[in-house]
Amino acid sequence: MPADLLEGLNPDQLAAVTAEGSALVLAGAGSGKTRVLTTRIAWLVQTARVSPMGILAVTFTNKAAKEMLSRLSAMLPINTRGMWVGTFHGLCNRLLRAHHQDAGLPQLFQILDSADQLAAIKRLLKALNVDTDKYEPRKVQAFINMNKEAGLRAGRVEAWDPYTRRLVEFFAEYDAQCNREGVVDFAELLLRAYELLERNALLREHYQTRFRHILVDEFQDTSKLQYAWLKLLAGPEAALFAVGDDDQSIYAFRGADVGNMATFMRDMGIAEPIKLTQNYRSHATILDAANAVIAQNANRLGKDLWTDAGVGEPIRHYQAMDDREEAGFVVEAIRELYREGLAYADVAVLYRANAQSRAIEHALFTAGLPYRVYGGQRFFERAEIKHALAYLRLIANPEDDNAFLRVVNFPARGVGARTLEGLDAAARQGGMSLWQAACAGGGKNKGLAGFVALVEGMRAEARGLGLAETVEIVLARSSLIEHYKTEKEGEGRIENLNELTNAALAFAADADDQGLAAAAPGTTASAATADDPAQAQLIAFLAHAALEAGEHEAGAAADAVQLMTVHAAKGLEFHTVFITGLEEGLFPHENALTEPDGLEEERRLMYVALTRARRRLFLSHAQQRLLHGQPRYGLASRFLEEIPTALVHSLNLHRRPTPPPPRSTADWGGGKAPSQPSRELPHKIGARVSHPRYGEGVVSGYQGQGAEAEIRVAFPKVGDKWFILDYVKLTPC
Ligand code: ATP
Ligand code: MG
């Protein structure tokens, strides 16, 4: 019954879920935007306003799409298969697969991730004899992507100076190379999908009639091109439902445009956005801190956020000497939380820059705590996996030059740089792929001939076989595993390679569940229409590998501490959150400070970080940090000062420098001073005590020293409470 679905929603949420026509929900963190969006889909389907086929929903990550689909399956007794739920990239991929001919793409087009794209650009610049000191490949890449993301092809980019004119030439050449090779980069996915609908009236009308409801989460981070694509898809009839929070706009540097909110309201004739003001996620202390920080921004649409979840615990702040000590603090605190009964997976450690994770990972690893890094180096981006994928890509399409170059001499088989240069020249001259040129070479080079025979053998063997079996053929024939056996630290790589078979099995099983050739949300390629289903599944798997955002991890424990950048944490929530590296220059990041809206964007990022925490928040900074091999000395971040001091409890008081103990008698087991308070404990940990207001509880911890010393008691009804030891009246019982 619809009543069940809608139960528990507050009146504003209810209004949003059941809104007629297009609507914009503008609301702060944790106010239930994502929940409202998911519930709205279920409600639309359940009340038969639309069939699942008529729904398209855009989420920010593949993980979010998966979660949304599984929640929907739980809410509704329907098959979610027909729904288009995924990221912009995933959905565009799906569209392009279904209409590859209209989009001018080969049926089995491959997706280049950004490392592949950079390699392709380097190859191009080399072929054009370009001085790469003057035209750095990374800058060329950024130039191309920036323009594509703004919806511009090379022919439409305005260039006033010779330098830019050259860049535009490279852009055009690069696109020509991609077209020749049948590959598509990330930015191209979006632009192609947009052009496809724009140019093809029949297709456009087909989708406009099909999708009655289009829903977008995290709308504040959509770019102009993405918004234009959504509008094309929606046409004049469909209802567009967007939820967002201007205070969480953190992708302006990548072309996201908060202005889309105002444009959207104007385009759809929406007079007022729906506002949600109750936060269901966090305790008041956490929310107060987040509100205080974001209040420092001038450029805001302005929203209120309140909670009735109670005040909660103070925010804890720790100042470390250096990054190692900071990491040690995080590990100790997590151990303590675990002892209290918190699962590792309920804890997130956030940082501003990926490079910061190394010290924390090291400390967690040494302490033997399970952890998982999101959005760092993704499984599918690891070198060994990319090598194996390159063989798979050649099985799918031997004319894939990028894949060819990656493994033609890996493991080494005597194909030298000179041979490759000759091959490249022959291919360009003859207008053919490297593979064709190699075949035409007629075995002149032994190594090259061996490679061609190897790939042909793999292709023949894999014909008609399942995905996981194909992966096994690659692992067995490519000698990758033998190669890594000879490497000093190759063990982990071999483990990852074997994990690739598991990834393929999981992918195939998901696909079977959904009755499709592919299962990743949004990557459910209609490659199922390819003549050979095994081939189609291989292609879908390769697309999944390029688009997937790091959910697959070799040997990852189910219960593991979650490590990620603040950007990657958007939309998520955790019981306990550590925000580390709160130093000027790092967070806010120094690069941002020279940009016009830079500081405000950094502050929004801080707002996102703070609002991920449900119950407990730890903030830390280090006076000295080793980053990219260089020591840096950072002052405490201004964001720390923007949090009212009454909300924050410093953890440093009990760690005031104590004179080192005499060497002869001390055994500190690794040099760490015990963090036990020095005064005598009035109650043992684990002792039962009674409190005048909360009744009976169990002593579960101490912190601080002297007048700052605190005791923590776990009460069956109200949970954990901290008390100042000098004031609290606890009687043993
Ligand atoms: P963010 O801006 O961080 O993406 P959000 O606005 O999307 O946050 P949600 O993630 O949807 O917020 O919700 C935050 C938490 O509040 C979730 O755990 C959700 O289940 C819970 N929640 C939302 N609405 C209600 C409600 N009416 N009753 C109880 N819990 C709710
Ligand atoms: Mg959300």
TrEMBL record:
Membrane spanning stretches: none
Any single Gene Ontology cellular-component annotation: DNA helicase complex
Binding site for ATP: 27-34
Species of origin: Parasulfuritortus cantonensis
Alphabetically ordered keywords of this record: ATP-binding, DNA-binding, Helicase, Hydrolase, Isomerase, Nucleotide-binding
UniProt key word Glycoprotein: no
Residue ranges annotated for the UvrD-like helicase ATP-binding domain, each copy included: 6-283
KW Hydrolase (keyword) present: yes
Protein name: DNA 3'-5' helicase
Sequence ranges assigned to domain UvrD-like helicase C-terminal in this UniProt record: 284-571
Catalysis: reaction(s): ATP + H2O = ADP + phosphate + H(+); Couples ATP hydrolysis with the unwinding of duplex DNA by translocating in the 3'-5' direction
CDD domains named among the record's database cross-references: DEXQc_UvrD (cd17932), SF1_C_UvrD (cd18807)
